[in-house]
Design a protein that fits this description.
Order of helices and strands: EHHHEEEEEHHHHHHH
Number of helices: 10
Radius of gyration: 22 Å
Number of domains: 2
Shape: globular
Largest sheet: 4 strands, mixed
Helix content: 40-55%
Oligomer: single chain
Strand order of the largest sheet: 1-2-6-5
Length: 293
């Protein structure tokens, strides 16, 4: 894939590793936080009695001493990221930038305005409003803050564990998560939530349709990448292999029954990715309108 010819996005946050999140005050049990005045009082008392203020906070929670919070330091000017990491970050920025260009044009055709999401590139773990992100969770979209969370180590896992190597396979993963943001902007996620609230037993079946539509939207982006000669021989096959490799039946090695699927089978995911790749039209991605996706 000629990703070097794509426009890099300004909406990618490379946050490294170490947790993230935060806010003022110290979090206590039950979601309570101490205000600034209470913290000052605790510090004064601790100085008078020679006690670590963090230990006092720990006792107030009913537990042991609290470990000091991790401090995130800005990188020193002299330090430079490894060449492989630099190339990978550039790849992510350019793929995100290209999805922005494609969906901005498509939303304009639909008489609407596309608001691109942020993509948070992290390593190891990172806190999001939708829960902790880690290599165990895989890439995901959080509709609360409208951000995509991606541990770039997943690309290696996609290649080695799932047997789907290649830059277009990696781009498919990004485009799929961007597809969820498209759903959020179009109101599909809100309809999904309402449908699940009415009938919780249908959550898995509806989730499959939601995921397959995101696959189709990823294919729509791929259609325009191919139209602008950004794809090379073998790229489409890489994307199809990646879509198949992350099917519920493949991941579970056939142990899951179809009614337990949440993302769709390998055949379903391949079909809908091809649907978007062949049409380039988001209107052909209505997985909710078919009897059996």
């Amino acid at each position: 894939m000629r990703w070097g010819d794509m426009r890099p996005s300004d909406n990618v946050e490379d946050v490294g590793s170490g947790g993230g999140g935060g806010g003022g005050g110290f979090p206590l049990g039950g979601g309570m936080r101490l205000g600034g005045g209470a913290i000052i009082l605790i510090v004064i008392v601790s100085l008078l009695f020679g006690v670590n203020p963090l230990s006092i906070l720990g006792m107030m929670e009913g537990g042991g001493p609290v470990a000091p919070p991790q401090t995130q330091y800005a990188p020193q000017p002299a330090s430079r990221p490894a060449p492989a990491a630099t190339a990978q970050n550039d790849f992510v920025r350019r793929v995100v930038g290209d999805t922005e260009d494609v969906w901005t044009a498509l939303f304009k055709q639909m008489g609407s305005r596309y608001e691109p999401p942020k993509l948070v590139s992290y390593r190891d773990t990172w806190r999001s409003p939708c829960g902790m992100a880690s290599d165990a969770t895989g890439p995901f979209y959080c509709p609360v803050d409208q951000k995509v969370y991606l541990d770039t180590a997943f690309f290696q896992e996609l290649s080695q564990r799932f047997g789907a190597p290649g830059d277009f396979a990696n781009a498919y993963v990004i485009a799929h998560e961007i597809g969820h943001h498209v759903q959020n902007q179009l109101g599909t996620m809100q309809k999904f939530d309402s449908a699940v609230a009415r009938n919780p037993r249908e959550r898995n079946a509806l989730s499959v349709r939601l995921e397959l539509q995101a696959d189709c939207y990823a294919g729509v982006w791929g259609y325009y990448a191919a139209k602008r000669n950004l794809l090379e021989p073998g790229d489409v096959e890489e994307g199809l292999k990646a879509a198949s490799a992350v099917g519920d039946d493949k991941i579970s090695h056939g142990r899951l029954m179809p009614d337990a699927f949440t993302h769709g089978s390998a055949a379903q995911r391949t079909y809908w990715f091809k649907q978007g790749m062949s049409s380039g039209d988001p209107r052909t991605c209505n997985t909710f309108a078919t009897n059996s996706p």
